[in-house]
Write a structure and sequence with these properties.
Keywords (chain A): Cell membrane, Membrane, Transmembrane, Transmembrane helix, Transport
Pfam family, one (chain A): BPD_transp_1
Number of helices of chain B: 11
CATH superfamily of the largest domain in chain B: P-loop containing nucleotide triphosphate hydrolases
CATH topology of chain A: MetI-like fold
CATH architecture of chain A: Orthogonal Bundle
Family (chain A): Belongs to the binding-protein-dependent transport system permease family.
Organism (chain A): Leekyejoonella antrihumi
Helix content of chain A: 55-70%
Helix content of chain B: 25-40%
Strand content of chain A: under 5%
Oligomer: heterodimer
Distance between the termini of chain A: 37 Å
Shape of chain A: elongated
Distance between the termini of chain B: 38 Å
Order of helices and strands of chain B: EEEHEEHEHHHEHEHEEHHHEEH
Largest sheet of chain B: 8 strands, mixed
Structural class of chain A: mainly alpha
Number of strands of chain B: 12
Number of domains of chain A: 1
Number of domains of chain B: 2
Mean pLDDT of chain A: 80
Low-confidence stretches of chain A: 1-21
Structural class of chain B: alpha/beta
CATH class of the largest domain in chain B: Alpha Beta
CATH superfamily of chain A: MetI-like
Order of helices and strands of chain A: HHHHHHHHHH
CATH topology of the largest domain in chain B: Rossmann fold
Low-confidence stretches of chain B: 322-332
Number of strands of chain A: 0
CATH class of chain A: Mainly Alpha
Mean pLDDT of chain B: 83
Subcellular location (chain A): Cell membrane
Largest interface: A-B, 40 and 55 residues
CATH architecture of the largest domain in chain B: 3-Layer(aba) Sandwich
Radius of gyration of chain B: 21 Å
């Protein structure tokens, strides 16, 4: 059919166009990303090395030394059962960070996939998925998680399940919106006209352009999940005692807030610092991953 | 092209209509019975205002949407939006905005080689060779292959978009206002590129523009579109020398020229095109036409041949005097 030859080369004079010298800023020059990474890495390191770093067994009670202030033996003092607060703080990081990071994975994957399908194909699939999302969205997140954990019973697995059931809807909404926007872009039309199938268009052309929003949101979602665990721990619905966990530490310490205030403040500050670090990472990723940067 | 050698039609549009919307009252008729023929190896320009249906026609030809009625024939065989991949490969499209038509997350190499691999254009081991051939076709250096679209200017991006369209070795290129998003200084180089691609590869090009000046030196023939219909088709020289349709005359009069006395003339065309939802009765151009007669308000003129290769949809084709700059005194 093709009656022409494609072997001609242009005269060199036509090769006037060259790529511009514009260079992309490397990731390590992104201040908030680096600051966030440093904070989170330190927190993770402390959690991982807790057995080495902690001076005492976090669940060993010693009623003779209960409710002591900071001293050389107990840097952050002891709680009402005589347990070392520093050791409990370090061991608590293991629980809170682990659940925070792991709880994000299932909703991220499920929400992203469902949102991409709803946004790309539209029609009935979109209507069904989004009505389910609306049902979950109608309830406040915390209330729903607390209710679910209450029904499922305390423990780590029911926390994972409750968070997964509730927070996939946010990813779904975010990704769906991004996919709808991306689908209108001419490069997606060009890919379809180029004869690429739906899986390839979604995976190669739309996916990489929309996933950054979900990743950025995941960073703040980890903070939310840690808040959920801490809240559940505070309400006595979370991790079963005597396992060290920041939320239950705050709950245990609140009766002494007027005298031994640091017992409640220190785990609270740990939550805040972790949250700050993750937010900074999220902030940095927004800059780094935004399509505008590569436009 | 003389009348003796009848050029072969590579793409034929027959009575194509595209309506948007349901119900009887608020249907938008984007295309309302369009007839158009693209000959092999020619550059046919399709010119019209915004909303005249140019892009809709481009989408139908490229297969990204389907017409409400009518036929599109490629080498005499009907093609639809659900076309086979070989038919899809033959007709490729270059989009208007080179800033949104390239995936910001793919390097030029990955974008082009994906197309080459999916369609098995060349054996796997020849892909690198094919890539540099494509780059030289569009006048880019091989070093551009590993850059992201963000690292290029608009003109360079449009070259990359053209390279992607050429990757599957089409013989028909639909270019939907490929230069209107570019700086004027860059427009000319891209127009040159289309001209050389046509002569080097024998491509047939449907070049859509909203500005006659852009295509004056590029197109072999020009089709003027108004509100979803073809108003006039002619060889470029003929169209500029003796435009028959009042709308074409107005368009030509509106092309800016470097002559001081032009400044004193009133604008060639007043008002906006009517809504394609509520079309005027009779000739669709009559509300803005300086020559409109009672007939024009009643019946719609068909696209009639007035000379070899020159067709006009006007009741008074051939009767209007051809100095478009003085039109207002004559029939008023």
């Amino acid at each position: 059919m093709t009656t022409f030859s494609l072997t001609h080369r242009f005269r060199p004079s036509r090769r006037e166009a060259r790529p511009a010298a514009r260079r992309l800023r490397p990731w390590y020059q992104n201040r908030s990303l680096v600051a966030g990474l440093v904070i989170v890495c330190i927190m993770v390191l402390l959690a991982v090395l807790a057995p080495v770093l902690a001076p005492y067994n976090p669940i060993k009670q010693n009623l003779n030394e209960a409710l002591q202030g900071p001293s050389g033996a107990h840097w952050l003092g002891t709680d009402k059962l005589g347990r070392d607060v520093l050791s409990r703080l370090l061991y608590g990081a293991r629980v809170d960070l682990r659940i925070g990071f792991l709880a994000v994975i299932i909703p991220f994957v499920v929400g992203t996939i469902l949102g991409a399908i709803a946004g790309y194909f539209g029609g009935w699939l979109d209507i069904i998925i989004m009505r389910i999302v609306d049902v979950f969205y109608a309830f406040p997140l915390f209330l729903l998680v607390i209710a679910l954990v209450f029904v499922l019973g305390p423990g780590e697995s029911s926390i994972y399940l409750a968070i997964a059931l509730v927070s996939w809807v946010s990813y779904c909404k975010i990704v769906r919106g991004e996919v709808i926007v991306a689908r209108q872009q001419e490069y997606v039309q060009a890919a379809r006209l180029g004869g690429l199938n739906n899986a390839r268009v979604l995976g190669r052309h739309i996916g990489p352009n929309v996933i950054s929003q979900a990743i950025t949101y995941a960073m703040s979602d980890i903070v939310m999940d840690i808040m959920v665990i801490v809240t559940l721990g505070y309400l006595g619905l979370g991790i079963t005692p005597p396992t060290a966990e920041w939320g239950s530490m705050i709950a245990d310490a609140q009766e002494f807030i007027t005298t031994l205030w640091w017992m409640a403040v220190v785990p609270g500050v740990a939550v805040v610092i972790t949250g700050l670090g993750l937010s900074l990472i999220g902030d940095g990723l927004t800059d780094l991953l935004s399509p505008e940067r590569r436009k | 092209m003389s009348a003796a050698e009848q050029p072969a039609a590579v793409l034929e549009v027959r009575e194509v209509t595209k309506r948007y919307g349901h119900g009887r009252r608020d249907t938008l008729r984007a295309l309302d019975g369009v007839d158009l023929t693209l000959h092999r190896g020619e550059i046919l320009a399709l010119v019209g205002e915004s909303g005249s249906g140019k892009s809709t026609l481009a989408k139908i030809l490229a297969g990204s949407t389907s017409q409400t009625s009518g036929q599109v024939l490629c080498d005499g065989v009907e093609i639809t939006a659900r076309r086979h991949s070989t038919a899809r490969r033959r007709i490729q499209m270059v989009f208007q905005d080179p800033y949104s038509s390239l995936n910001p997350r793919m390097t030029v190499r990955s974008a082009l080689s994906e197309v080459l691999r999916v369609h098995r254009v060349v054996p796997r081991e020849q892909i690198a060779e094919e890539l540099s051939r494509l780059m030289s076709l569009v006048g880019l250096d091989d070093s551009a292959l590993d850059a992201y679209p963000s690292q290029f200017s608009g003109g360079q991006r449009q070259r990359i978009a053209i390279a992607r369209a050429l990757a599957v070795r089409p013989d028909i290129l639909i270019a939907d206002e490929p230069v209107s998003a570019l700086d004027v200084s860059v427009q000319a180089t891209i127009l040159d590129l289309f001209e050389s691609l046509r002569s080097e590869l024998g491509l047939s090009v449907l070049f859509i523009a909203h500005n006659l000046a852009v295509v004056q030196h590029l197109a072999d023939r020009i089709a003027v579109m108004y509100l979803g219909r073809i108003a006039e088709v002619a060889q470029t020289d003929t169209l500029f020398a003796s435009p028959e349709h009042p709308y074409t005359q107005a368009l030509i009069a509106s092309v800016p020229r470097m002559r001081p006395r032009d400044l004193e003339q009133p604008p060639a065309l007043d008002g906006e095109p009517p809504s394609p939802i509520h079309l005027p009765t009779g000739c669709r151009f009559n509300p803005r036409c300086a020559y409109a007669q009672p007939t024009c308000l009643i019946d719609e003129p068909a696209l009639e041949r007035v000379a070899e290769g020159h067709s006009v949809a006007c009741w008074f084709a051939g009767q209007l005097q051809q100095a478009p700059t003085k039109q207002s005194e004559e029939f008023a």
